[in-house]
Design goal:
Layout: H1 2-56, H2 61-111, H3 117-154
Helix pairs in contact: 1-2, 2-3
């Protein structure tokens, strides 16, 4: 019986490590998700204030440039927000696949039912593909974040 418990723990370790890895990736992405959302809200509030001024008087050149800059940034930030959302979804789905594969490994060992292997491997591989998808979305998001910062710092204001 001790061998079965040790075997069970060893077999469930690989998906468990991936669950932990996805948890760390999710932590970072959830932080970025909050930061991008806050930035969108801040820029949207600034845009609203400028539009209120626009109704009261004509905007000068600097204010018009700032308004155009904000509108462009908001467009890019909304797309960036979608990329972060997709990254979080991929990592979350991957974590779920690793949890299911870990549970099926435990069931396979406890029940000695060999057909579970046909469920375990696809679940684990699907989880790995989801992690890959999350990494790709994350890389795209970082590139877009760089582009937004370059645009903002090079704007003629």
């Amino acid at each position: 019986m001790n061998f079965t418990i040790v075997e069970l723990i060893q077999a469930m370790l690989a998906p468990g490590i991936m669950i932990s890895a996805c948890g760390l990736l999710l932590l970072g992405m959830n932080n970025k998700y909050s930061l991008v959302a806050t930035r969108i809200r801040t820029l949207d509030e600034e845009k609203r204030k400028i539009n209120i001024f626009k109704m009261e008087r004509e905007l000068d050149k600097i204010e018009n440039l700032r308004l155009k800059s904000i509108e462009s940034q908001l467009k890019n930030l909304n797309f960036r927000f979608k990329l972060v959302r997709n990254t979080v979804i991929c990592y979350s789905f991957a974590m779920g696949m690793f949890i299911f594969s870990s549970l099926f490994i435990g069931l396979k060992i406890l029940t000695q039912y060999e057909k579970h292997i046909y469920i375990i491997i696809p679940l684990f591989l699907l989880g790995m593909f989801c992690v890959l998808g999350g990494v790709i979305y994350s890389a795209l998001e970082v590139c877009l974040g760089y582009k937004i910062i370059q645009f903002e710092t090079n704007a003629e204001i």
